[in-house]
Amino acid sequence: MDATTIGEDRRPIWMDTRLPDAGPLRADARCDVCVVGGGLAGLLIAERLAGAGLSVVLLEQGRPAEGETGHTTAHFVTALDDRLSVLERLHGERGARLAAESHRAAIDHVEALAARLGAACGWSRLDGYLTVGPRHKSRREELLGDELAACGRAGMEVERVVSLPAPWPGDLGPALRFPRQAQAHPLRLLRAVAEHLMASGVKLHGGTRATEIHGGAQAAVVTEAGPVVRCGHIVVATNTPINNLVAVHTKQAGYQTYVMAFGIPGGALPPILLWDGLWEDDAAYHYVRLMHARAGEGGAGQFLIVGGEDHKTGQGPAGDAPYVALEGWTRAHFPMCGGVARRWSGEVMEPADGLGYIGRNAVGRGNVYIVTGDSGNGMTHGAIAAMLIPDLIAGKENRWATLYDPARKVGVHAMADFLRENVNTLRQYGDWLRRGDVTDESQIAPGEGGVLARGLKHLAVYRDEQGRFTRLNARCPHLGGVVQWNTQEKTWDCPCHASRFEARGRVIHGPANGDLKAEGAG
């Protein structure tokens, strides 16, 4: 490949693989458990429930695994984004040990499942290396030493090394080496799971949006098209819950993360996983892996997949700045990179105290369960949910239940982050008193959008490539934040609680569970 600047193919490199489903739900249904959300968490939870003999209906508003799971980079790791040294401070030594144990068990669980199903997903175990980014270069020894000690107390096999294995960049070391991490092609893995589910009698319905979720004795999920699923239990696995108005949304924040896949010569680098930061206040970190691609998936050969440059959803820099920064960092450290095969972004939910929320919903009846707060570790987090939630449904004890309980209080050591995120959210409501991005629709270029203020009313205006306008109420249907135009992804993003909408207003990411209201088109 010739070296290029930012590529134009916005599809995640995994998206050339598609999962089967039974099509939209067209009639009422009954089951033991209704799972809402067809990403990794929902599919793995359904697999374990079905394996225990329960009847399952799974609903996904789009195509299975093409939401946030399809936008992952599929690192299966025990080197958690919220460092063990931080988790130990927030949850105590026992909490950190249980966190490490659960993520280790999650990797084993997925590995066993992939082997049992014969999934041709490129599953492999490999070393992961944690380094310290340039922002904290002067504290490298201190930070790595603290993390190494915390990992030891948590029962993890980790060692300090002077540098990364050659020919990985020597200037990124020293590092901590985490053995027996894993990677896979996520959609090939989940295609095998989906095929197994359908063969096992699980009703897997894509193109079916759940609009109402009711727990209790008459538990039911109402869909946008009308059919209702009546069930004994409901699992909401939609990255961020669509069934809570406030509750957990004050305890986590949505962040946009960016990914680019670069062509590199075959065999140029030995396979490892690499992470270069995320030491509490370090937002501009990076995560790296390799992938051998088949023809049709961005080309054929080897790809260096690099992610990072996170920012709060709806509060990002203008234009292509995140991709420009990501490409600049990559080419500075990996000069063998050729062209950009793909680029995409995803959304991660960052919990206030570093651990996800898995278990009974904090509000409402006791037979509704949620999975959220992945903090960038969605692969292992979803697998933990697949082991934890079925136990709760079956009435079994699970040693991780208290640690991940969605109803847990924010501890004193996490209160500063909790308050900072919520103050940030409240400030976004000031947008109702500010001018919009544009003062006239004519200022909006074809294929772009902008917010137009008319007194206290704000319109989200999209202009398509043919010059036609779509005018929407800019008020997010969740809690009323003013949405912002995301020029990289061509979406409307809410800066308050991270809901996202297509250019013409259809919701694609919660917590909003409805579309932006139309104000007319022309």
Account of the 3D structure:
There is one protein chain. By secondary structure, the chain is an alpha+beta fold. The chain has a domain at 434-521: 3-layer Sandwich (Rieske Iron-sulfur Protein), CATH 2.102.10. The protein contains 8 helices and 25 strands. It is globular. Residues 1-7 and 295-299 have low confidence and may be disordered.
Largest sheet features: 9 strands, mixed
Distance between the termini: 42 Å
Give the low-pLDDT segments: 1-7, 295-299
CATH class placement of the domain at 434-521: Mainly Beta
How large is the share of residues in beta strands? 25-35%
SS field, number of helical segments? 8
Number of strands: 25
Would you identify the CATH H-level superfamily of the domain at 434-521?
Answer: Rieske [2Fe-2S] iron-sulphur domain
Q: Can you tell me the CATH architecture of the domain at 434-521?
A: 3-layer Sandwich
Q: What topology does this entry show?
A:
Layout: E1 29-36, H1 40-51, E2 56-59, E3 75-76, H2 84-117, E4 124-130, H3 140-153, E5 159-161, E6 175-183, H4 186-199, E7 203-205, E8 210-214, E9 220-223, E10 228-236, E11 252-264, E12 273-275, E13 286-293, E14 301-312, H5 321-333, E15 340-351, E16 357-360, E17 368-372, H6 378-394, H7 401-404, H8 415-428, E18 448-454, E19 457-463, E20 469-473, E21 484-486, E22 491-493, E23 500-502, E24 507-509, E25 518-521
Parallel strand pairs: 1-2, 1-10, 2-7, 4-12, 10-17
Antiparallel strand pairs: 3-6, 4-6, 5-6, 8-9, 9-10, 11-14, 11-15, 12-13, 13-14, 16-17, 18-19, 19-20, 20-25, 21-22, 22-23, 23-24
Helix pairs in contact: 1-4, 1-6, 2-3, 2-6
